[in-house]
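Journal club side-thread
Mid-discussion, someone asked how the predicted structure for our own chain would compare to the paper's figures. Pasting it here so we can look after the session.
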Amino acid sequence: MSDALDRVDSISTRTKLSYGLGALGKDFACSLVYLFLMYYYTDVAGVPAAFVGTLFLVVRVIDAVSDPVMGMIVDNTRSRFGKFRPWIVLGTVINSLALLGLFSAHLFSGSQLMLFVTFSYIVWSLTYTIMDIPFWSMVPALSARRVERERLVVWPRLFASIAWTMVGTYGLASIEFLGAGDEGRGFLLLSGFIIIAFVASALITFTQVKDRVAARVSSDRFTFGDVIAILRNNDQLASLIGCVLTFNIGTQLVGGFAIYYFSYAIGKPELFPLFALVSGIAEMLGIFIFP
């Protein structure tokens, strides 16, 4: 019996690789947004910086509500494909369309530009949540053994780091090449190529990564009130959320403002790809150095 359970709870290399490739595609998409969207809005589309900053803040507040709501929806999902995979595919398709919308802002001007930027960014954030929350939430459904789950998570973290490093290092050069002098066109075409990898990776995850311990998961349905109660009564969870939130804010600030720093503070934008490459390599090394 023990050997049979070990075989069920062990995660194959094929599953780990497939799950990692899923992270590669989705982080190609989100790294383009987090590294370059602010620059695209202000320097390409002509959106005032104060408007962009306010919009980003408002959407982060929306995320604070939409993330746990999406988690509740996923937990209450019952389908023949499991709880997670249908949402990963659906979220990827919708978010891909939203990504194209984000980098179409330069086609608008005036009040239409502001309305389009506001709508498209909110839609992108909400649809990314539809895909991202179930992607990471499916880890416990792949094995009941903690050691196996820890080994699994290394793969998507590594592939995510690769995606961020590649987009940061080669993003500006790709935009210049694709746009042939038109940055707006370059951003739009690059987002189109990234969407191809994004959708392909989601399909790999859908077909190759399947729930294996769903029968051990409680059939109780959670409500939004349950989520609030868990957060209110678990101080350790609240502390962890605070740490993760602070870390994400810090890394996104560094990533979003780095291109401005190299372009305007020191006047050498060509150093940004080197910065992205070095920081990406450091992040990948950290995955293996620290357990």
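Post-session note: The two ends are 30 Å apart (CA to CA).
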